[in-house]
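Open question from group meeting: does this chain pack into something compact, or does most of it stay loose? Before anyone orders reagents, we agreed to write out a predicted structure and look at it together. Recording both the input and the output here so the notebook holds the full record.
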Amino acid sequence: MKLKELRLYKVKIIKDGDVIFEDIAEKMPEEFKELDVENINLESGEAVVEI
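Structure tokens returned:
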């Protein structure tokens, strides 16, 4: 799954334990959209994604 597929969610992206993005997916920088998802959890309307 690619991050661009989460366009309707509020997203928190975590890389190596650090939050690198937190906002609605439509505002996600282009360079994040093609990253592969390692793990995803849905928490209270927010997709928490590890890459």
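Observations to bring back to the group:
The mean pLDDT is 84.
The chain is about 10% helix and 45% strand.
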